[in-house]
Amino acid sequence: MRFCVLGTLRVLDGSREVTPSAPKLRQVLTFLLLRRNNIVQTTELIDELWGENPPSSALSTLQTYIYKLRKILSNDEVDSFEEILQTQSWGYMLTIDHDQLDLNQFERLLAEGVAALKRNETEMAAKCLAEALSLWRGLALADVAAGNLLSAYVASLEESRLRALELRVESDLRLGRHREVVGELKHLISVHPLHEAFYAQLMNALHRSGRRWEALEVYQRLRATLVEEVGIEPSADTQRLHQSLLSEETTAHPAKLEPQAGQGRRSTAVIERPRHAVRTLLPAQLPPDIWDFTGRQSSINDLVAAATMTEPTATTPPTVLIAGMPGVGKTALAVHLAHLIKRDFPDGQFYCTLRGSDGEPADPGQVLYNWLIATDMYTKKLPSSTEERSKMFRSWCSAHRVLIVLDNAASAAQISPLLPGSEHCTTIITSRSGLYGFPCRKRLDLAPLTLEEGVRLLGAVAGRQRIEREKGDAQSVVRFCEGLPLAVRAAGARLTASPTLPLRTLAARLADPELRLKELNSTDFDIYHSFDLNYQELDPRERGALWLLYLRRSTRFNLKSAAETVGCDIDTSETILTRLVSAHFLRIVGYNGARDDVVYAINELAHLYAEKKLENELAERGTPAEASLDAGETTAIEAPAGSGPPAAPGRLVRRDLRWNN
Prior knowledge:
Layout: E1 2-4, E2 10-13, E3 16-17, H1 23-34, E4 40-41, H2 42-50, H3 58-73, H4 81-84, E5 85-88, E6 91-94, H5 102-118, H6 122-134, H7 148-174, H8 178-191, H9 196-208, H10 212-230, H11 236-246, H12 297-308, E7 319-323, H13 330-341, E8 349-353, H14 364-374, H15 386-397, E9 403-407, H16 412-415, E10 426-431, E11 442-445, H17 451-462, H18 464-469, H19 471-480, H20 485-497, H21 503-511, H22 513-520, H23 527-536, H24 540-550, E12 556-558, H25 559-566, H26 570-582, E13 586-590, E14 599-602, H27 604-621, E15 634-638, E16 652-656
Parallel strand pairs: 7-10, 7-11, 8-9, 9-10
Antiparallel strand pairs: 1-2, 2-3, 4-6, 5-6, 12-14, 13-14, 15-16
Helix pairs in contact: 1-3, 5-6, 5-7, 6-7, 7-8, 7-9, 8-9, 9-10, 9-11, 10-11, 12-13, 14-15, 17-19, 17-20, 19-21, 21-22, 23-27, 24-26, 25-26
Pfam families: BTAD (PF03704), Trans_reg_C (PF00486)
Region (Disordered): 249-268, 620-652
Protein name: AfsR/SARP family transcriptional regulator
């Protein structure tokens, strides 16, 4: 069986075409193909198909789509249903050979062409690149409806095609085929009027064909288009090419499209601003770094490499994503990382918090407006729509090397308009929701600090000598903070405010669940509010399941016991638990590779949040005895509405509401 995505979607079984006709089936199959031989989570597929408002039947409908695809891919042979499209923990995996997908062949030929170009084997490079481009049959996935996640993959495919075009034209120019490419390049700049590399190549082709005056006219057309559309001048390389034509130099060459062999970390000299350009201010929007940033060294090394290393075949801008629970230090790490690498981005840095303290996502159109103003763009030239502002920002980024930090992203749909399209710009993203399935070069699920790192951070805030004198109690404080940097800082601030407070006294107060939330709250870290934002994003069924799981006496459970507690089937339970893990109310503490062997645990601080939340909700309902939660009291509550079908009608859950950890 053969699959084609470089154009319209096609599935060929020998000479017979078996491409599914239903739009949703095509969408699911395309997503699985682009993530071939990797697990695609059920939640990702639901997000792709229905966005942020999936129907209540989303899971069962998706399972129907998977069943129909299996029939198509296995040629209705029931025994082989699971061989190609397998059910894995939390999702599905489409397993295909390398040669079955035209995209794999394109990427292989593109890589071979780039390598040949670097070895100065120009004839071979031109052949490989032309063969790679011949696989395309039009716009990528032109007949497939794309949601937020799939749209990002489609944009990446188109960027790869343009990159291959640039390199193939460069090969032809090196081989002296300048006259042959003039017509093609004229067509390309008409289709891509803001793609500067094609203009530079056309200028060279015309100049080498003895049509220097036309080459100069092409430059004027480029400059007029850039100034009128996005308010910027052509890049330094193109301006130098123009100057060489004006001075009748015959050695004009197009700007380099690939790094030199052996090049690793980016050189900040690849794109430089013209010497005569006047800029009073470059965007420098990063918040100040934290002077006592502690730990994370291994993660930092990986992130720096991912954010600054140039890959020979890279056609998309590097993006790193830092995800994690509230208080784990995502923002601090992102800002620290940005300061470490900002010298690699001489044209500035952009920063934006995409979700405010009220939990409302920021409008990407307004973010783009503010950024474009920061680039000295004239206000009257700014379009009103988010889409057009996004195009203008990407056009500006194509001639500049900038670093972008997007903090606390709410969704893929929110950040997609804010991403640059040029491979010399890097984006750092943080998110509480995880953004699973979002394409990025490096993803880090940030873990809490180790005990040693937490004690060092506590010492940096409250005084190292004080911590060393009571190191055992300091370790207890860090444990009760669960290694969350913001919680450790809150504890350190408490110690700083009370110089005579012994650490053993603070540790004893933190050991009391009734006092822990109060003691760890500070102006920078409100545990209750942080988890409340996550809680508000759960749907009624997920909230109901959360209460039923939290009212268990055991804080650890597997998929089967969770399904029995919630009163639903295994598949529904798995979907709900995956959502609660991504919202950081649960964590996975054991996994042996089998679906039934996954062990879940309740996060302790989330446990305390749940106690407080339940106390408030019982008080609002006027529970007898004023919802008192004194030690030893047992209260009966109905399974919350929307929690899914109960295990038995009118099921009551009894639980000592004081968590005795």
